[in-house]
Structure formats: structure tokens, C-alpha cells
């Protein structure tokens, strides 16, 4: 009797052991944790990532995405290259420079495919052409200086004729508003639109934009990046991330979703509600730049080799990279959903 | 016992060769590690690449070094000229002590990286905000070390001098101040190292010159050799300034036990 009882208990224990080591069909599979680093504090073109998280698109793909704000594309690229974060959102020109120096980073989903760099100045003392930069003081973060140097170089303006002030991201807009500098460098679809919103509300002076693209520098803008090691180790995760993000971008572009997307972005990034008007304007200004002539008819995020080659050419001509290298080394479309 | 010239020479030779030898070993290990592990240049360039870059960009590095060194020295001297009299006032007057010490402590709890951007907005991009940050960062150790030094005089000595008719200012100048010099110099040595940090913090926040500016722009363009070149020059500036303060200490207080102990060690070899 006793031995039968022991036998039943033993059988039960063995069954429990077998079940506990069962495969996915027997247990819920934990979501893949993904660390994403943005390029800046909350900006309109980032809203679809927060939308995807809030709507559960990442969760449906089995991803637990932690979206972190950034402090400049250069820092984001360094973090991705150093494998401190898995996925990043950063400027593709800076990504190309980093890749040329041996950093193993790649673009995997183009977002701002038409670069939106500009020198911003007050409308009452506008800087309208690169020649008008001579003798002026221009603030920028260290990450943006290589692009500004490119602009000067293309327009044959000696670098020592322009007073460049390197500032921290936190200080840049403040020193401009305070009149410490004549202008600053930024992407148009980012924080400079806060000045536009303030001017419309009668709380500040209107600003003038001198777009780089009008003066020979129309590089790629920003997009999603990752490092080669992550591409090798987790291609399925990247495919799922891009798929969920593409769906979010398609939905956020619809006018009826703009306000909701802004509200979700403010909530998840813990940004003050005062920023709502500027963030919405940034989104509106970004949408036309989500593609180029070369990406027409292609799925969202698909990148054109011509656009990349043009950007590499600019870097080579202005000696920001030591020697030419194939544009195919800088990006991949293999994670873009075909439909 | 008179020192032998051989012992003296050997000691002096060791004092010079030991640190140089240590640095050479570190550089060799560094070079070997970079070559062995194929470390990318933007992460950690080989030391010979850094040296070549220092030689190639010597004029640029010196131009920016001068700017940083100027803000370090100006801020440090200002903190000495302001800090030491305030310390004297604190020791002389209980009311001044009660008024200023809380403010001093509060000022130290404000992170300088938080106040530096505000200084740039208030004072602009010139050298002034950098000097202000250097001053704020080096002021506290100077005041505290001077106060401690002035208060550390044995009370018997003060009573003796007072019994001989000396008034408070005379006691301060002839008894307390000389006795406080060792602690003051300890504070100066800490402050001069902190001053270098303060200058770089100021330049990181907003600048158009200086080694901090150079570090930021070269990091932004992933120029590893230039980053490390600027770092080495910064280290050299800090070490030179620290050595100057140490030499001044040896000149001012040759009688102090810490200076005498070094001399005695030579004599006993």
C-alpha cells in the first residue's frame, strides 16, 4: 500500500518536472525586451513610436519596447554603436560618418527621407543666405557642427569667418532667444517650431529659416538605426519592430489621428502639455518629408540607394569621410514589410 | 647626520625615473591592447596615433589650451583672493560665521552642471562664465581649509601671546595665519585640480574656444586621436598647476613636518 502511494507521488513529481520544462505551447513566451533611444526630447516625427507602444502593436509582435528620449543624434549613434541600446533614431548623415570610421551601425527604416536642416534666425534680423553667415555667431550642439561645416564648405565660406558657439542641447534655444547668438542650427521640424508657435500666440518674435537644401546640402534626414551585432543576433525582432512601427506611421499620418497621437506622445514621454501645439506642428511639417521622389510607390521606410549615394557623395566631397565607400554598407531594406 | 651625495642623487633619480617608467609601461600596454583587440580608432586610438596628432595639431591645441588655462588660473586666483579674507572674517566674527557658513554649504549642493547653462545665458559665451564656474567650484575648499587651519592653533599659544599684550589682529597675523598655512595649501591643492574640472564644465555648456570645446567637437565628429590629444594636454595642465602650488608650499612652509619628513628620509638613507 505504502509503496503504491510512493509510486503515485513519484509519478506526479516526474509529470510536474516534464511539464515545467515544456516548450512554448505549454507556457506563455516572455516578450523580447527592446531598448530604443530617440534622437532628442519629444518631437512630432517620433509620435508613431509612442502610438505603436500605446496601441499594443509592439506587444502584439511579442516586443516589450522601452522608448527613451535622446540628447542628440551623435550620442544616440554612439549608444547604438556601443550596444548600450538596441535600436536608435538618428540622423543618417552622422550615421554615415560614424560607419565610415568603423562603427558598426546601419539604417533599417527611413523616416525623414528629405533632410530638414536649417539655420534659424529672428525674422527682424534674418540670415537668408550662407554668405550672410560671415561675421555672425551661430549656436549648435557638437553633433551638428559637422553638417554646418559641410554647408560652409559647399558654399566656399571660410570656417573662421563664422563664429561657432558649441552649446549643450539644454542651452541652445535659450541662448538664441536671449540674443546671445544671431542664429542656431537645427532641423526645421524639431524644436525651432516652438518659436513659430510662440510667435503665433504673440509670446515671441517670429523666426526665419535658411534651409540647407536651398544651398546645396540636401542630405538624408533621420531614421531608425541599429548595430550589425543586433542585426545578426535578432533579425526577427527587427522585422517585427519595423512592421509594427510602419503600421503606426501609416495611422498617425491620418489627420483624424493627429491630436490623439500628440496626446499619447506627451503622456508616454512625460512631456509638459504646453508642448502640444509645437509637437503637432512638427508632425505636420514632417509628414511631407517621409519620402522622396526615389521612394514613391515603395512601402513606408524603404530607402533609395540614390538618396544614400547622394549623401555619401556630399561627405566625400567635403572630406568628412576619408574615402568613398558603397552606400549599401550603410543601410538595409530587408526588414521593411513588402506590404 | 649629513646626507651622502650618492643617496641624494639616487633618491632624486628614482623620483624622476619611477613615474616616467610607470607611464611608459602603461603606454606599452595600451598600444598592445589596441593592436591585439583591433579597437576602432574612434573608441581608443593607439598612443602613437595620439602623439602624432599632438605634434600635427600642436598650434590648435596650444591655442585652446591657453584659453582653458587662463580661465583656470583667473578663477583660482579669484577664489583665493576672495576665499581667504572671508575665512579670516569667519574666524574673527561669530556673526559672520553664522551668516556665511550656511550659504557656503548651500552653494556647494548646487550642481555646477546645472548652474553653468544659466551662467552662459547671463554672461554670454566669453571667458567670464567659465571663470565663474571655476570660482564657484574652487571657492569652498579654500574657505573651509583656511578656516580649519586658523582655528587649529593651540589655545595655549594664543593665551601666551595675548598675555604679552598682542591684540586680536596681531594674533591673527603672527600666530594663526602662519600656523594655518599647511591646511591652506592643502585646500589650494584640492582647489587647483577642481578648477580644471570647472573650466571644462563651463566650456561643455557653451563655448567657442578651449579644450572643452575641442573635446566636444572632436567627439561629435568621432575624431578619437584629437579627443585623446586634448585629454592629455588637459592632464598636463592640471599636473603643472598642481606642481606649481606644491612648489609654492615648499617655499612658504619649509619648516612643516610634511616637508621636513621628505628631507629626513633622504638624510637617513
Provide the CATH top-level class of the largest domain in chain B: Mainly Alpha
Q: Let me know the number of strands of chain B.
A: 1
Please name the CATH topology of the largest domain in chain B. MetI-like fold
Discrete helix count of chain B: 11
Chain pair forming the biggest interface: A-B, 28 and 20 residues
**Global geometry of chain A:** globular
Helix content of chain B: over 70%
Order of helices and strands of chain A: HEHHEHEHEEEHEHEHEEHHHHH
The averaged pLDDT of chain A comes out at 89
Note the main sheet of chain B. Answer: none
Shape of chain B: flat
Radius of gyration of chain B: 23 Å
Write down the domain tally of chain A.
Answer: 2
CATH level 1 class label of the largest domain in chain A? Alpha Beta
**Percent of sequence in beta strands of chain B:** under 5%
Strands ordered across the widest β-sheet of chain A:
2-1-3-10-4
Keywords:
heterodimer, A: about 350 residues, alpha/beta, D-Maltodextrin-Binding Protein, domain 2, 2 domains, 13 helices, 10 strands, about 40% helix, globular, B: about 270 residues, mainly alpha, MetI-like fold, about 85% helix, about 0% strand
Amino acid at each position: 500500500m505504502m509503496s503504491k502511494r510512493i509510486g503515485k507521488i513519484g509519478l506526479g513529481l516526474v509529470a510536474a518536472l516534464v511539464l515545467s520544462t515544456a516548450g512554448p505551447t505549454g507556457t506563455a513566451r516572455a516578450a523580447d525586451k527592446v531598448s530604443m533611444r530617440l534622437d532628442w526630447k519629444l518631437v512630432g516625427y517620433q509620435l508613431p513610436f509612442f502610438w505603436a507602444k500605446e496601441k499594443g502593436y509592439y506587444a502584439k509582435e511579442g516586443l516589450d519596447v522601452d522608448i527613451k528620449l535622446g540628447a542628440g543624434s551623435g550620442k544616440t549613434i554612439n549608444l547604438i554603436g556601443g550596444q548600450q541600446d538596441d535600436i536608435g533614431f538618428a540622423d543618417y548623415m552622422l550615421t554615415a560618418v560614424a560607419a565610415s570610421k568603423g562603427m558598426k551601425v546601419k539604417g533599417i527604416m527611413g523616416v525623414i527621407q528629405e533632410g530638414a536642416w536649417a539655420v534659424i534666425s529672428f525674422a527682424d534680423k534674418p540670415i537668408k543666405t550662407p554668405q550672410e553667415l560671415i561675421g555672425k555667431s551661430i549656436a549648435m550642439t557638437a553633433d551638428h557642427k559637422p553638417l554646418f561645416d559641410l554647408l560652409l564648405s559647399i558654399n566656399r565660406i571660410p570656417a573662421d569667418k563664422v563664429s561657432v558657439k558649441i552649446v549643450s542641447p539644454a542651452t541652445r534655444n535659450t541662448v538664441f532667444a536671449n540674443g546671445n547668438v544671431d542664429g542656431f542650427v537645427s532641423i526645421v521640424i524639431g524644436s525651432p517650431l516652438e518659436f513659430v508657435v510662440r510667435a503665433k500666440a504673440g509670446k515671441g518674435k517670429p523666426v526665419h529659416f535658411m534651409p540647407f537644401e536651398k544651398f546645396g546640402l540636401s542630405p538624408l534626414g533621420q531614421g531608425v538605426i541599429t548595430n550589425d551585432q543586433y542585426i545578426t543576433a535578432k533579425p526577427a525582432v527587427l522585422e517585427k519592430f519595423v512592421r509594427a512601427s510602419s503600421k503606426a506611421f501609416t495611422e498617425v499620418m491620418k489627420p483624424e489621428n493627429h491630436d490623439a497621437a500628440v496626446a499619447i506622445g506627451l503622456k508616454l514621454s512625460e512631456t509638459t502639455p504646453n508642448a502640444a501645439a509645437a509637437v503637432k506642428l512638427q508632425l505636420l511639417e514632417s509628414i511631407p518629408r517621409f519620402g522622396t521622389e526615389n521612394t514613391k510607390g515603395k512601402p513606408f521606410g524603404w530607402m533609395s540607394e540614390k538618396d544614400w549615394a547622394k549623401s555619401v557623395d556630399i561627405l566625400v566631397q567635403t572630406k568628412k569621410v576619408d574615402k568613398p565607400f558603397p552606400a549599401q554598407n550603410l543601410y538595409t531594406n530587408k526588414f521593411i514589410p513588402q506590404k | 647626520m649629513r646626507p651622502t651625495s650618492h643617496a641624494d642623487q639616487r633618491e632624486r633619480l628614482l623620483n624622476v625615473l619611477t613615474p616616467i617608467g610607470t607611464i611608459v609601461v602603461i603606454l606599452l600596454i595600451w598600444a598592445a591592447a589596441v593592436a591585439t583587440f583591433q579597437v576602432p580608432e574612434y573608441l581608443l586610438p593607439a598612443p602613437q596615433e595620439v602623439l602624432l596628432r599632438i605634434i600635427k595639431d600642436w598650434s590648435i591645441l596650444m591655442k585652446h589650451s591657453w584659453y582653458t588655462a587662463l580661465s583656470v588660473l583667473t578663477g583660482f586666483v579669484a577664489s583665493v583672493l576672495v576665499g581667504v579674507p572671508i575665512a579670516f572674517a569667519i574666524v574673527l566674527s561669530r556673526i559672520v560665521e553664522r551668516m556665511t557658513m550656511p550659504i557656503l554649504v548651500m552653494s556647494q549642493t548646487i550642481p555646477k552642471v546645472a548652474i553653468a547653462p544659466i551662467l552662459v545665458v547671463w554672461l554670454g559665451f566669453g571667458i567670464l562664465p567659465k571663470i565663474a564656474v571655476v570660482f564657484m567650484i574652487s571657492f569652498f575648499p579654500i574657505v573651509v581649509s583656511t578656516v580649519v587651519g586658523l582655528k587649529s592653533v593651540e589655545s595655549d599659544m594664543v593665551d601666551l601671546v595675548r598675555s604679552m599684550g598682542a591684540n586680536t589682529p596681531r594674533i591673527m597675523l603672527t600666530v594663526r595665519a602662519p600656523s594655518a598655512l599647511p591646511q591652506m595649501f592643502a585646500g589650494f591643492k584640492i582647489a587647483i585640480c577642481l578648477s580644471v574640472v570647472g573650466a571644462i564644465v563651463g566650456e561643455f555648456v557653451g563655448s567657442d574656444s578651449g579644450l572643452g570645446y575641442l573635446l566636444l567637437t572632436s567627439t561629435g565628429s568621432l575624431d578619437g586621436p584629437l579627443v585623446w590629444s586634448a585629454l592629455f594636454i588637459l592632464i598636463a595642465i592640471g599636473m603643472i598647476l598642481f606642481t606649481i602650488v606644491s612648489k609654492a608650499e615648499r617655499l612658504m612652509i619649509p619648516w612643516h613636518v610634511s616637508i621636513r619628513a621628505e628631507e629626513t628620509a633622504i638624510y637617513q638613507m
